[in-house]
From TrEMBL:
Source species: Pseudoduganella umbonata
An example molecular function term from Gene Ontology annotations: sequence-specific DNA binding
Gene3D superfamilies for the chain: 3.40.50.880, Homeodomain-like
Protein's recorded name: Helix-turn-helix domain-containing protein
InterPro entries: AraC_XylS_family_regulators, Class_I_gatase-like, Homeodomain-like_sf, HTH_AraC, HTH_AraC-typ_CS
Superkingdom, natural source: Bacteria
Length: 313
């Protein structure tokens, strides 16, 4: 299930969401998540039921028919006691979609609930992954939706995550009203990356992979071939592909293409370069190839992306 597919779940009324606060109520992770959702609740009344509980309260009660359940903790928060954590996770798992925000992403993965699942872990916790790195697929993104699992790295990204949930679960009208109330113009998307995630994790655990990604980021306009990148980092093509598949869930060529397309979307949104110029700046010599690849990844053409910017202006 992608974030876009959460709209199906959003047809449920009333929509029931559980938030379990396992950390500091004053943390950016918690306030960034809960404030937009509380505003949405005020707007929708009984159509959206936001259930906020402590871990102890959740563990003491049975499942309550939640559609979405999230365990939330700031990255500095130490883990809950094992018995309490397992009880909370068991309750959250009864929801249609469930997951964690911030440090809770690591907790649920360490408990064995993210095997083969793409998860957005806070970059500061990458050094604590242990066996989790062998089971889950840790991505550098701000948040992820993989099947029933929803995860967010926390911090400031919690606001973008909450607004994305509101948009898909409760409708674009509610999303627009909440953004206006919070004076937010732009919501970062799920495929945007934590700025230092790759270096923080792979610089220690997989330096060759970190080096390969750095080469890609430095050669957007004139892309290198996979063989060139493998040679430059001292690996065979097969070894490089295995690293990308294991740690990023993608082939080097696909990851590189998405990196260039994300850069192109940023340029379309934030500069006045023509669409042709943007394509060339991101390594696309063919306008049709640029448009097709962009549409496949983002669901709209470069021209439509530029029109959205003009409409917003």
């Amino acid at each position: 299930m992608s974030f876009a597919n959460l709209a199906r779940l959003g047809r449920e009324r009333p929509l029931r969401m559980l938030l379990v606060n396992a950390g500091d109520a004053e943390s950016l992770t918690w306030s960034g998540l809960v404030q937009p959702l509380r505003l949405a609740q005020r707007l929708l009344g009984d159509a959206f039921l936001l259930d906020i509980r402590t871990p102890a309260a959740v563990a003491a009660t049975g499942a309550d028919g939640w559609h979405v359940a999230l365990l939330v903790a700031d990255e500095q928060q130490p883990p809950l006691p094992p018995q309490l954590l397992y009880a909370v996770l068991d309750r959250c798992r009864t929801a249609t979609s469930w997951g964690g925000v911030g440090a809770a992403v690591l907790w649920l993965a360490a408990a064995g609930h993210a095997a083969g699942v793409r998860i957005a872990l806070p970059w500061a916790l990458y050094g604590d992954t242990g066996e989790v790195a062998e089971q889950a697929i840790l991505t550098p993104h701000l948040f992820e939706c993989d099947g029933r699992h929803i995860t967010c790295c926390g911090g400031a990204a919690s606001i973008d995550f909450a607004l994305t949930l509101i948009e898909h679960l409760l409708g674009s009208g509610t999303g627009a009203a909440v953004k206006e109330a919070l004076c937010i113009d732009r919501v970062r998307t799920a495929d945007e990356r934590q700025r230092v995630a790759l270096q923080a994790r792979f610089g220690v655990l997989q330096p060759k992979l970190s080096e390969a990604v750095t080469l890609m980021e430095a050669n957007i306009e004139e892309p290198l071939s996979t063989d060139d990148i493998a040679n430059l980092v001292g690996l065979s093509r097969r070894q490089l592909e295995r690293l990308f598949k294991q740690y990023l869930g993608s082939l080097p060529s696909r990851y590189y293409l998405e990196l260039r397309l994300q850069r192109a979307r940023q340029l379309l949104r934030e500069t006045n370069h023509s669409i042709v110029q943007v394509g060339l700046m991101c390594g696309f010599s063919s306008g049709s190839h640029f448009s097709t690849a962009f549409g496949t990844l983002f669901g709209n053409t470069p021209r439509e992306e530029r029109q959205r910017k003009l409409a917003a202006a």
